[in-house]
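Board notes (copied after class):
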Amino acid sequence: MNITLGKPLAVSDKGRRGNNEDSIFPLSEIVSSADRLYMVCDGVGGASRGEVASSMACDVINSFFCTFLKGDPDVDFVNKAVQYVETCFDTYTSDYPEAIGMATTLALAYIMPSAVLIAHIGDSRIYHLRKGKILYRTEDHSLVNSWLKLGLITQEEAINHPKKNVILRAIQGKKRPTEAEVSIITDVQAGDIFLLCSDGVVESFTDEELESLFSTRCPLENYKEILVEKCLQKSRDNFSFYLLPVESVVKTESLKPVSYTHLTLPTIYAV
């Protein structure tokens, strides 16, 4: 199987905030359908250190993939990349002690020939959509979501809960190590869309609203414009997202090994 993307679209906007602590990779100006690695990170930390954390995570993970990836990534490889980011954070905060405490979420997608690997940390999300239906959605590593799963609060209470932004996992440093939750999606079809987004998008759309939006057949640019418009209206946070459209999925049959048992070797005569 060979998965090919159409042209991805991305936005990273400060929204109503004074600065943008989100980062995306690749940058929207240089992205192409040939790219394989995509990320959205939402930084945490005062004095602009959130933007340092998110940007550094994108750069370091990309560098790790470019340097060490042989073949397709797996769970172990992704978490080694996360560990490398933690090491780089420790180096940075030793030089700039005022940055201690900086952290970032992660939403990552890697397009393999026959599957899509997705990984996330924190409350940045990844959606897999097909014909307006959410086939898969990552679960937030957040305090409110843990309460929701335990039945301590209702879905309605979770939406506007005062602690909805408290996350249980983030990339920080070796003293507080974390792991990415990784899934490999093999059920991929032409027309599918993968949406990677920060919590600024999550708080602007319910699942039902996203399904309603993507059930309308229109150019990808229209989805992008509607996402931006509603985030500007509803979110008080930065918002960032990547739209990854699957253009084609070509199934390739494995070549069968040639059997030579039926061949008769020519007789060689000595001259």
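Comment from the instructor: The domain at 2-250 is CATH 3.60.40.10 (Phosphatase 2c; domain 1). The first helix runs from residue 49 to 68.
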